[in-house]
Amino acid sequence: MRAIVFDFFGTLTDPAAEAGRRESFTATAAALAIPADRFWQAMGASFPDRITGRYGDTRATLRRIATECGADPDEADLDAAVSAQLAGGVRVRPPRAGVLDLLDRLRADGYRLGLISDCSSELCESWPETPYAPRIDAPVFSWQEGCRKPDQRLYAAVSARLGVSAAECWYVGDGGSREHDGARRAGMRPVLVTNTAYPDAAARRSDPDPYTPELTIADLDALAPLIRT
Ligand SMILES: [Mg+2]
Q1: What parts of the sequence cross the membrane (predicted)?
Q2: pTM exceeding 0.90
Q3: What span, in angstroms and rounded, lies between the C-alpha atoms of 18 and 22?
Q4: What does the pLDDT read at residue 66?
Q5: How far is the CA of 174 from the centre of ligand 1 (A)?
Q6: What is the dihedral of CA 92, 126, 145, 25, to 10 degrees?
Q7: From CA 60, how far away is CA 62, in angstroms rounded?
Q8: How far is it, in rounded angstroms, from Cα 24 to Cα 40?
Q9: Can you give the pLDDT at residue 200?
Q10: CA of 129 to the centre of ligand 1 (A)
Q11: Cβ-count burial of 46 within 10 angstroms (0-12 exposed, 13-18 middle, 19+ buried)?
């Protein structure tokens, strides 16, 4: 095995941080003068299209969502809304405890590191500024690729960009978006992170994977021992 492909939200990020998403959306809604509940509902309904790039970048997305909600923000309102939305994006992606050191150690051990994330524009636009960027050799984002997990094109893209075969890749994720079934079909070796210490995390998982990998770990600190065996 020469590479490890990670999921992003709830895997590299602190699973507890997802609980802050609604509050961060509330700040964006306020900037657009849209009721918070209406904005939350519109963002949820548009999720499949937003994460595959069909709403465009963050500014275009917020303009369109505002229109769908009956608002008519001017450019200054949009500036404020984009700032609020990107700041909210920072709040939902703090690194899981110890994860940056883990990524450094895995690279020092010679593993190539990849990422597949079902994500909207905010993460792609901010990626270079995140502490993850210098540690991930090949990030693959649904928003950029125009398809979402478990679409096989995402798995093919990450292994190609890592310069390895799918059979040489571990796939490590917390089990949203049917990601492990996709990884298994791609020929990768799936590992489920159960996040046992985060009882609310499972409830927040989008499109849970009905397939459970043979290999499961409670937290990422168990990954290095597992892949060395
Ligand atoms: Mg996840």
Answers
A1: none
A2: yes
A3: 9
A4: 98
A5: 5
A6: 40
A7: 6
A8: 10
A9: 80
A10: 20
A11: middle
What is the average pLDDT value for the chain, to the nearest integer? Answer: 95
Is pLDDT at 6 greater than 90 in this prediction?
yes
| Residues 214 and 183: beta-carbon distance below 8 Å | no
The answer to whether 128 and 57 have CB atoms below 8 angstroms apart is no
Tell me the CA–centroid distance for residue 207 and ligand 1, in Å.
10
Distance, CA 10 to ligand 1 centroid (Å)?
4
Distance 82 CA to ligand 1 centre (A): 24
The tokens describing 161, both together, are 């960009």
Residue 155 has pLDDT above 90, yes or no: yes
pLDDT of 45 reads 97
pLDDT in tens, 187-196: 999 999 999 9
Lookup: tokens for 19:
């609980």
Q: How far is the CA of 175 from the centre of ligand 1 (A)?
A: 6
Ligand 1 centre distance from Cα of residue 72 (Å):
34
Q: How far is the CA of 202 from the centre of ligand 1 (A)?
A: 10
Say if CB 15 and CB 193 are below 8 A apart: no
User: 70 φ, ψ to 5°?
Assistant: 80, 15
Q: How far is the CA of 83 from the centre of ligand 1 (A)?
A: 24
Instruction: Say whether pLDDT at 96 is over 90.
Output: yes
